Amino acid sequence: MEITQPRLQRDVPLAPFTTFGIGGPADLLATPQTADELADAIRWARAEGIDWFLLGLGANILVGDKGFRGLVIKNEAQHFAFDGTRLTAESGAVVLDLIEHATEHGLSGLEHYQDIPSTVGGAMWQNLHFLSYPHERTHFIEEVTESARVLEPGGEVVEVDCDWFEFGYDDSRLHRTEEVVLDVTFALEPQERKEIQIRRDMNARWRAEKHPPGAVHMSAGSIFQKLEGIGAGRLIDAAGLKGHRIGGAEVSDHHANYILNVDHATAADVRALIEHVRDVVEADSGHRLQPEIGLVGEF
Fold first, then answer.
1. In the beta sheet, which residues pair with residue 119?
2. Cβ(133)–Cβ(202) below 8 Å
3. % of the chain surpassing 70 pLDDT
4. Does the domain made of 9-74 have the CATH classification 3.30.1330.10?
5. What is the pLDDT of residues 201-217, one digit of tens each?
6. DSSP track, 118-139
7. How far apart are CA 161 and CA 168, in angstroms?
8. Are 70 and 28 in contact (CB under 8 A)?
């Protein structure tokens, strides 16, 4: 198999590519535009023995102030196409874009994830989910997933079904293996466009009320994992930590499980605040919170 070196940029700051707006430079940056280019970039990094990280919309992560020593692959493979009620999308496609086009086609199933910042690849990684308005039930991306093409560690591309992902709550087998999703086929259901739009609007309003204003552009989403039967945000609130600040990082007054970049926060600020919250909550409640976000690069 011939391996092609991707087009590379050097010493590229990663902060603009994350929802936190935090992060030092990547030694190397590649921006594949198709699923084939994505596969080639990963094959090249593996063949060269270069550490690499796959970046989507930059949500749910905190990049270290010293950046990433190796190759960051910013996935811009965003092509998608409809075939009847099926939608096949490359893993860099933005879920919100898919929702827009599915609505236009009168196809339901993705509108439950309205306003959640995620690519298709990120959605599969974490089994994207949302408790839809009005507290109807939690909808998981696995429910509409039919099949996918994945790149194996040896460089081969194989097609897999939904069960292959071993989906759980905030979990999939992708957390534990080295396969990478190239594209996914979703099985959607015909429905009146106005009904889909109503559901989108309701979910968007509820999400806006529940989450801190502007959080998409100044946070990484929920910081700590959900505890069984106990909301992490409630424990943080009960410990009196809303509004607590270290450097430019602050525990949200609106939702305590969010840490916001309110004033040019560094990754060091955020990590210090995470550890402070964990210590105070443990002393107050006996529960040790576990971070939900990924830590990337050098701190």
1. 94
2. yes
3. 98
4. no
5. 998 998 888 888 888 88
6. -BHHHHHHHT-EEE-TTT--EE
7. 15
8. yes
In whole angstroms, what is the distance from residue 276 CA to residue 285 CA?
A: 14
Assigned fold of 216-296: 3.90.78
Model's pTM, two decimal places?
0.93
Domain boundaries, the chain: 9-74, 80-210, 216-296
268, containing H or E segment = helix 267-285
- Beta strand pairing call for 61-63 and 294-296: parallel
Structure tokens at 299: 């701190």
Which contiguous run of DSSP H or E holds residue 103?
helix 95-104
The residue whose two tokens read 């943080």 is 236
For the cut 70, the answer to whether the pLDDT of residue 83 exceeds it is: yes
Nearby residues of 63 by Cβ (< 8 Å), 6 or more positions away? 14, 15, 18, 20, 22, 23, 24, 267, 296, 297
36-52 pLDDT per residue, tens = 999 999 999 999 999 99
CA distance 255 to 242: 8
pLDDT tens digit sequence for 259-291 = 999 999 999 999 999 999 999 999 999 999 999
State the greatest distance between any 2 C-alpha atoms of the chain, in Å, as a whole number: 58
pLDDT 10s digits, 110-131: 999 999 999 999 999 999 998 7
On the question of pLDDT at 96 being above 90, the answer is: yes
Q: Quick one: which H or E segment has residue 185?
A: strand 180-187
Amino acid identity of 294?
A: G
The answer to whether 214 touches 126, Cβ cutoff 8 Å, is: no
Instruction: Name the strand (E) or helix (H) holding 296.
Output: strand 294-296
Q: Which CATH class is domain 80-210?
A: alpha beta
